[in-house]
Design brief:
The structure holds two protein chains of two kinds. By secondary structure, chain A is an all-alpha fold. Helix content of chain A is 81%, strand content 0%. Chain A is built from 13 helices and no strands. Chain A has helices spanning 2-17, 19-45, 52-57, 60-74, 76-84, 87-92, 97-130, 138-164, 169-186, 189-192, 198-207, 209-217, 223-244. In chain B, 36% of the residues lie in helices and 31% in strands. Chain B is elongated, with a radius of gyration of 24 Å. The chains are: A mainly alpha, B alpha/beta.
Chain lengths: 251, 312
Amino acid sequence: MRKFYTLLSREVSSYFYSPIAYIVLFFFLFVSGADFYFQISFMNQRPVQYSVQEAFFNSVFFWFAFVLIFPLITMRTFAEEFKLGTIEPLMTAPVRDWQVVLAKFFGAMMFYIVLWVPTLIYFAIFQYITHQTAAGSFGAYWGSYLMLLLLGMFYISIGCFASVLTRNQIIAAVISFCAITLHFFSGLITFIVTEVSSTMRQVLGYFSALEQMATLSRGEIDTRPIVLYLSLTILMLGLTYQAFQSRKWKL
Amino acid sequence: MIKVENLTKKYAGQTAIRDLNFEVGQGEIMGFLGPNGAGKTTTMRILASFLPATSGRASIAGFDVFEQSLQARAHLGYMPENVPLYNDMRVNEYLNYRAALKSIPHRRVSERVGDVRELCGLREVENKLIRALSKGFRQRVGLADALLAEPDLLILDEPTIGLDPNQIRQVRELIKNLGRQHTILLSTHILPEVEMTCSRVIIINKGRIEACDTPENLLGRIRTAGGVTLEARVGGDDAPTQLRKIAGVRDVSESEDDGWKNLSLRVESGTDVRAEVFRLARDRNWEVRELTARRATLEDVFVEITHSDEAS
């Protein structure tokens, strides 16, 4: 366990050694802050049917920033080690492959969580100024942050998998960006193509991050996406592990 | 300590090493020589469990490097070629990180880090970023890392490449001292270094072991064990022809330096022809200003072994 913590703390601190972390943090705070501001000024102009919480987590701004951060967070995880050759001292030390894979995954998760902490302040400020809660209930907070966590896990595992496939960070970023946007926008097909059967619509709905987010940010905690994303994450991490230890395959 | 049996590694259609067999005993310093691309790094990577072998077996301290890789790695200090390091860490930080990875007990970490820092001369750079270190210091950080867990076996892939002569001397001394407690397998291109430090030498060429012996035995084995240099005024004599008549002389080459003939003789191993040459010179009335025997070096062995193969 000590080896895992050592690897994990190295992963987390390596994010903050690199300028990319600060660029991502800045970019993300800027976009989410702008999103929050515009949502509220929009609500100021006319009455709406939804809460600030729902508006914030379902806007175009938000999703735009959301899909972009994962390639940035995960592209370096494995690709950089391959490129610099530091994988050699790492893997010739007595550590197991799965310890390295999990340390990289959880390291990225920690950074991702750090990214979201400041957004809690938005809602606190809102409450302080307006003396009103931003969401309908506490369930809405739980729901939306749970969804962020689940989707984040899945997308980070995709990013780790893309990074383990190549020694080039740009290629890793492009692969994970494509895979993530593809999954993400598959939920939009029902909006674009209206000529789909109701079963098809329903099936796509199960995978639609947008619809799940809409549900959860209202405070309805649905267990289906929880199971879906946990199992997808485990699947992707399994693939990452297999690809990582494929260098030991006797071909 | 190391046992290698029929080790073969093929990369896509190409055989990097073919059927290697050798053993390194406890406390030996084994030199691993060969031209670039001979398979040295591949062999070392297999021993360090970084690459799998295509066939054959290798074990470290009795643990198979593939089946029981974790135990094998626990006995190993490995310094890869070109020493890849995390550039964003400081020297102390890196060594502490590596110490934890190698399961050095908490209470011993600072002691061990302090020891290797002292041993490898890293005190003056301990708080520097690794990115800011010179090649020589990076090399020493790599060596310090390999020594951290006091492993039974050290595998060093070109530990002195890119160092200046003073640093090479320091590293050589260090390795010699380490050889008292550790078994060492080191690869290098610098042959005098091997002669000075290693108790045995493996010469590998095109993935095959060409020779495996002590440096002394290797020197005794090669056909042209050494040579004799004669510098003389020979008048009108055909000196090379006359010298070739002496028993034991294999070949003579000559060059001229303002009136003085410089004759270089290659002789059979184990023969000393200097007395014969002197007698010939005296009989022919040659005016001699130099007559020296040149001892064969490992370089001659290396060139002969790796070249004869190329010619065939």
